[in-house]
Design brief:
The chain has twelve helices and 20 strands. Helix 1 runs parallel beside helix 7, helix 1 packs parallel to helix 11 and helix 2 crosses helix 11. The protein is globular, with a radius of gyration of 22 Å. The chain is of the alpha/beta class. The longest helix has 21 residues. The chain folds into three domains: 224 residues, FAD/NAD(P)-binding domain (3-Layer(bba) Sandwich); 78 residues, Guanine Nucleotide Dissociation Inhibitor, domain 1, CATH 1.10.405; 96 residues, Polyamine Oxidase, Chain A, domain 2. Bound molecules: flavin-adenine dinucleotide. The site of flavin-adenine dinucleotide (FAD) has 34 residues, from helix 1, strand 11, strand 15 and helix 11.
Amino acid sequence: MERQEFDALVIGAGAGGMAAAARLQLLGYRTLLVERCDRVGGRASTVEIDGFRVNTGALVTETGGENGRLFADLGVDPGLRMPRRPVVLRLGRRDVPLMSGPTGFVAQRLLSAVGAISRRTGKRPAPGPTLADWLDKRNAKPALRSLARNLTSALYAAEPADVELVLFWDYLTKPGGMSPYAIHPEGAIGPWRVVADDFVRRGGTLWLSSDVQGLTFVGGRVSGATVRRGGEVVEVDVRAVVSNAGPLQTAELCPPDALPAGYLERLRTWSRTGALITINFASRRRLGPIDGLFFFSTTRRLAYACEVTGTCPEMAPPGWHLYLGACAPSPATGEFDLDAELALLRADLREHFPGFDDARELSVEVCAGTDWPAQRAVPGKDEPQSTPIPNLWNVGDGARPWAGAGQSGCVESARLAVESLARVVALHSPQPGLTRQVERVSPGAGE
Ligand SMILES: Cc1cc2nc3c(=O)[nH]c(=O)nc-3n(C[C@H](O)[C@H](O)[C@H](O)COP(=O)(O)OP(=O)(O)OC[C@H]3O[C@@H](n4cnc5c(N)ncnc54)[C@H](O)[C@@H]3O)c2cc1C
């Protein structure tokens, strides 16, 4: 059996794993990144269907915030392209841009100001009540309830009853506000390909179509992993592990006696997962003026939709327009009737895309259950990045910081995990140039 040695192993090349591997290699840790699929990106990736680039989950990537910080630290250009109107809210018959034009300017300033005042005065909603409780208390009209449902669907693959009001508030009013959303001409995989190329260029090792099958332990710490690579099994010796497989799946990779009593059992009932259903469709004729990412107020199910080729024509063969429409089913975090949900989603698409029935349906993507959920945890129920094992961390969805959402929440979890790792796992032979980077990325180094 082959045996190899690395400083750090990262399990999974989703947004969180890719960001963690890139940061570790940047700091000087000899890093192995193992990914089960034949591509990077996880639920922010892209596959080709008859010449159309169809995303496996995520569509848009926040350009600033934690994503922007990662791209800047690596010194890479993710190649993202900004839609003419990055986010538009369809309110009845009116389309209101939320991130561009005068309405976008006012909306952004308003949220920033409310957030700043709330942080200064310490006034924010009390923990506990959900967004649904708040809507009930105000006897909210159906249109407001539908808008709230569509926003929680799009942001959290959840419904208002699943989302604490204070978490929703903290997300909307976070410092720095919402940074514009952008699309990559290669699809959601685009930015992660850029980060993967940079990781490999810096000497990182990436094994695609490979599986981490188990972790080995010595003295209460992870000492290695068994990896299936092609038809071979490779034993890898490592000093630290960062996992993007999800907290439960990561614990299941450990020998049961290596974990504290009750840990695995707790994770097995830890949280419900969230679901999202996406219909990808294409037409030779343009179907309505939905150019950027549209959120909807009053629909049966449709939470958001986009004409992807409005910004990135490369995503479809010449002469075609590529669209998607998505919703969280009801219940979003439990068993649902897929046929009934699809009927409601298609009815909405017919209404908002005249000519939808003549369009070509390319795929229906259902992200649900424990293996490929839209969200591994109900918002606010994420596990910390650290685990009971001192040299094992979780990153990505399921280990995001409070109010973190989407890819940027996963990228943030990766930064926090790597900062923590750098505090407890010293570099083998720090080089002068790298010590400075450790200090910059990990202000707590040496604590
Ligand atoms: C339909 C949908 C639409 C979305 N839209 C957006 C959006 O527009 N913008 C946005 O920012 N976010 C969006 N999100 C959320 C975003 O896609 C996810 O939160 C994010 O991509 C999850 O990343 P992650 O770090 O958890 O990694 P994951 O995507 O979960 O990737 C984990 C990877 O680990 C691999 N893996 C697991 N176990 C092993 C193992 N044992 N060995 C090797 N490899 C393993 C898996 O194959 C996978 O590739 C959307 C999600 C969905 C489902």
